[in-house]
Amino acid sequence: MSEVQEQVQGAGAGAGGGKPTTRDALIEAAFQLFLERGFEQTTIDDITGLAGVGRRSFFRYFPSKEDVVFPDHEGALTEMTAFLDDCGDGGDPVVQVCDAARLVLRMYAANPTFSVERYLLTRKVPNLRIHELSVVWRYERTLAAHLRARYSARSDGALRADVVAAAVVAAHNHALRTWLRSGGAGDVREAVDLALDFVVGTWSEQPRPDGGDGPEPAEDVVVLVARRGTPMWRVVQGIESALDG
Question: What is the dihedral of CA 56, 62, 67, 70, to 10 degrees?
Answer without folding.
Answer: -130
